[in-house]
Amino acid sequence: MPPPVSGCLLLLDVPKILFRALLSVHGLHFPLEETVVLIGGINAGAAYNGTENSTTTIYPLSADEEFSFILTEILALANGGGTATSEVLRAASQILPGDFESWYNEFNWLGMRIHDLATQAKSATSKREALFRASSYYRFSSFFLTGDSSDPRLYDTFEKSLEDFHEAISLLPIPGELYSVSGPSYHIPGYFFKANAGNATKLPTIVVGSGYDAAQEDSWHALGKEATDRGYNFVTYEGPGQPTVRRKQKAGFIPEWWDVVTPVVDYLSQRDDVDMNNLALIGLSFGGQLAPRAASREHRFKAVFSIDGLVDMQAAVLDKFPDELTTLFKSSNASFFDKVVSSALDQPDTSTLFKWFTSQGLWAFNTTSYYDWLSQLGKFALTQELVNNISAYGWVGKGEDDDLVGGQEDVLARYYNASGRRDATFQLFPMNLGAGLHCQLGAEPYLAQAAFDWLDGIVSI
């Protein structure tokens, strides 16, 4: 499920239109109003302005803002054993800014080398740790390749990633389990990680869904161990449009997200180690928009989390367009809209973020039309009416420096509070503690403390 190190405003010449390129996330990013990227040091030469300052951005890892952000995302996985800091920093030093091939080559090479370490390991612990890291590097090697769905590397490296992850979870002290359940026209793959809770039988259980681009395997490293160490079963899943289902079943995102989540809940209800009275649903980034959609019809959750989530991604995109382009989209002239976006992509100075965000959209929504992709996004919007149907307790998180979508997290909290059911808990994560990025990248222990301490209180009700 993030903004780049600060934000970017890029104007492109597109047939008489000033085209603002979008910033995306691990989930989704959009542009802020200014760029503050100082390679070689943040605020180099500037006067020290105190420990309470929250305006300084996170140290950039690349001269390319989108590369820098995704590198930060990969580095953050080290908190949960998904990567190692020096391995990531060394790769970052070798990658050419904005060059998708050098990105692929470095992380694929790193995946192979760390996989070799796993094969040489003498203990199960050493092998498991190396397999987790190799899996992450394989997975991220193809991150920027979604612009060509016929590229075999999109599939080959992902398959290697899954193989290493599956072997790694089999070596956990309490082995992780793979499961697969059926949706209306697709299968939903997932993982079940049992809590570290001694002889307890039925345990409170957290179900986590990612967003626009992130893989469910990342969620284990971000929050999984934090959850299981606190006595929660930890469950992940992927639906249409998300990495495994998109690759293996060619299924794009669907707005009926309850059709994805309800089969997962049905599966959990058949297990003898799940307390069905204490289920929580977490959505990260775009998943923070999908989770409330699911909870509006699936009422077996006691709590629903939207972590830096969205209310209306389409509105957020259109808000970053110049008026002329928004008018063009609303005119329903699909062919001309597609030509305009294609023209923007052909400009020599087009940002990495814009290239990736649009190509990821076509890939994840399984379409070849930019107009169709953007139109589909509108079908996912959260409304007051939809939130009124949520019976669970709500928790909405926002990173202080994650001003991506015009305060949509605040809007979602207001929807909860106006529903007449239960007020939502709103949590702002400050930048001066390094927690202000999208989905609190790099500050996962703080996120876990805030979210799971709150959940402890809900479970006890």
From TrEMBL:
Lineage: Eukaryota, Fungi, Dikarya, Ascomycota, Pezizomycotina
Molecular function as annotated in GO: serine-type peptidase activity
Source organism superkingdom: Eukaryota
Protein name as it appears in the record: Peptidase S9 prolyl oligopeptidase catalytic domain-containing protein
Record-annotated Peptidase S9 prolyl oligopeptidase catalytic domain positions: 264-322
Pfam families named among the record's database cross-references: Peptidase_S9
Gene Ontology terms describing biological process: proteolysis
SUPFAM superfamilies: alpha/beta-Hydrolases
InterPro entries per record: AB_hydrolase_fold, FrsA_esterase, Peptidase_S9_cat
Organism field: Neoarthrinium moseri
Stretch forming the signal peptide: none
